[in-house]
Specification:
Elements (H helix, E strand, L loop, with lengths): L1 H34 L6 H24 L3
Helix pairs in contact: 1-2
């Protein structure tokens, strides 16, 4: 039972790290848009977070799988 709890906690922490990095990337992108005086909607913000998270997961999977 302890091993299941440990695995769930590790997954929760890893998910939090991925979301945090994606959030930072989205905030940087939003800053670039505002710097260029362009609109950056809420929909674009969440799309940026989603795309960044997917790229992080794909790249980390490739690293852990030995492809990179």
């Amino acid at each position: 039972m302890e091993i299941i709890a440990t695995i769930l906690i590790l997954l929760l922490v890893a998910g939090g790290i991925v979301f945090f990095i994606s959030f930072v990337i989205a905030k940087i992108t939003e800053g670039i848009f505002h710097w260029r005086k362009q609109e950056f909607s809420s929909k674009q913000f969440w799309q940026t977070i989603t795309i960044a998270a997917l790229l992080i997961l794909i790249i980390s999977g490739m690293v852990c799988g030995g492809a990179l």
